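Tokens as discussed.
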């Protein structure tokens, strides 16, 4: 009879940088986060979704950096120009 440690070792066998242990962990985490009505019925779909869109182990890596002063100034100027253009369009009747 296999022990839990032996099972974990089998699940962690690497196949091209992926293993079943990590996939099951990510799939179960997705179930915990999404809370589907029938997780048993949805398990295969969730598993397939995890395979194509794995959880990000570094969630902060995808966040954009806050804009610096120059970018903020450029956005402000763009907003002013758009505001002026919108006023002209309203006067002419285009909007």
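Sequence:
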């Amino acid at each position: 009879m296999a022990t839990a440690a032996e099972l974990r070792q089998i699940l962690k066998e690497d196949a091209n940088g992926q293993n079943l242990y990590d996939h099951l962990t990510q799939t179960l985490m997705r179930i915990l986060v999404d809370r589907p009505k029938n997780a048993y019925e949805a398990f295969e779909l969730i598993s397939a979704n995890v395979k194509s869109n794995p959880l990000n182990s570094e969630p902060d890596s995808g966040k954009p950096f806050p804009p610096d002063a120059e970018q903020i100034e450029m956005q402000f100027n763009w907003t002013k120009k758009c505001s002026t253009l919108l006023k002209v369009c309203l006067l002419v009747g285009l909007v």
